[in-house]
Amino acid sequence: MCEEQTVSLVDVLEEDEELEEEASAVLAGSDSDHCSYPQGYVKRQALYACSTCTPPGGEAAGVCLACSYKCHEGHDLFELYTKRNFRCDCGNRKFSGLQCKLHPDKDDVNNLNKYSHNFFGVYCTCLRPYPDPDDEVEDEMIQCVVCEDWLHGRHLGCVVPDCVETQEMICESCMNKHQFLWTYAAHLGVQRPAQQTKEEKGEPSEPGHSSKEENSEDIVEPSCKRSREEAEPSCRLKELQEAGQKRDQSGAVFWPSGWRSKLCSCSSCQVQLSEAGVSFLLDESDTVLAYENKGKNNEQTQQRHDPLMSALDNLNRVQQLEIIHGYNDMKTELKDFLQTFAAEGKVVTSDDIRQFFEQQSRKRRRIDSGPFFCS
Asked: Per residue in 139-165, pLDDT tens?
């Protein structure tokens, strides 16, 4: 007889905390109350696509976090996670019959926005939805930092390394589109298992090429920083190309933390990056990790200035415990309330939530006043 798997209360609480932290990382970096359109092309923000307003076959469009709440409540939305340099489309020409409630005065189109099949709810080279009801394989999806598409790990053409959360990935298609990236990959990219094994044995990583140890004196590692007062340095990309170290040009490439700071930023390379539309690779604050850390910091700052938390600090220990118990009771009741909808396959509306809290309020008023209600 197989043992039934058990989950402790600590496990449940830790999972809740992880989910809340993930939500804070993505959403707290964006404004949930005001349309981001007046900010122009925002460096990075959480985005959504509305299949109700812009169904497949129409024009691709994206809306900001606030508009997803205020203007598209009850609609079928695709979560796009984050995109760079995007301006909110909500209510413009692409939305027939819908006017933005938060910022109705918009241009017909945002010409600098970039769109992909993600805006119609499909991802990866396999063009499948996520989650995919027909895919029984458990596989993580990883975002390319250049095209920002999400790809299944098994469709990357390479082995997904450990600690992938701290690394960035560029898909094979983008690597081939920007060939100079292969030169950087040979020196800066995360080594593939086969290549690493050969180098540990002192064998050449590629036929006809010397090992890392033999080339160590010839390879000029690019520096992380340079002073503005310095004269224009030689091109580090050319130096790496002349070093001759090669890498198999197939599959996606993973990059370690800080790799962007090692790219050459001489004037010719800056022009090349600009013409290729990838100047953002020189900006370490462009990374999703930097955006997520900003969201977490914003959330922590708001919590420190929360009036409720300040009020709790002024209560004694008994009163604090009463409030915590009351909050936990309400949280349990809310979960039970939502589970009834899930069991019956019903959609929870804002009116349902409002009704729940009204019931809670009436219930609390019937309880004798105690420490929980002391002011």
From this structure: 999 999 999 999 999 999 999 998 888
Is 294:43 a contact under the CB 8 Å cutoff? no
Q: Which residues pair with 46 in a beta bridge?
A: 82
CA dist., res. 234 & res. 269, Å (int): 11
| Residue with token string 């929980």 | 372
- Give residue 354's pLDDT band: very low, low, confident or very high (50, 70, 90): confident
Neighbours of 239 (CB within 10 A): 18
Burial 225-238 (b: 16+ CB within 10 A, else e): eeeeeeeeeebbbe
244: alpha, beta or left, given left = phi > 0 and alpha = psi -120 to 50? left
Q: Are 100 and 67 in contact (CB under 8 A)?
A: yes
Residue 236 phi/psi, 5-degree rounding, is -70, -30
Distance CA 281, CA 298 (A): 25
User: Is it the case that residue 306 has pLDDT exceeding 90?
Assistant: no
Q: Which amino acid is at 139?
A: D
**Which of 253, 121, 247 lies closest to 174, judged by CA?**
253
* Closest to 288 in 3D by CA, of 255, 319, 262, 314: 255
End-to-end CA, the chain: 56
DSSP H or E run through 50: strand 42-50
3-state secondary structure of 27: helix
SS3 labels along 109-142: CCCCCCCCHHHHCCECCCCECCCCCCCCCCCCEE
**pTM listed for this prediction:** 0.69
Q: Which amino acid is at 212?
A: K
- Rounded (10°) CA dihedral 203, 155, 19, 305: 70
As a whole number of angstroms, the distance between CA 151 and CA 182 comes to 20
Q: Measured at the alpha carbon of residue 335, what is the angle toward residues 332 and 339, in degrees to the nearest 5?
A: 140
Task: Identify the DSSP state of 13.
Answer: H
Residue 303 is encoded by which pair of tokens?
A: 């919590």
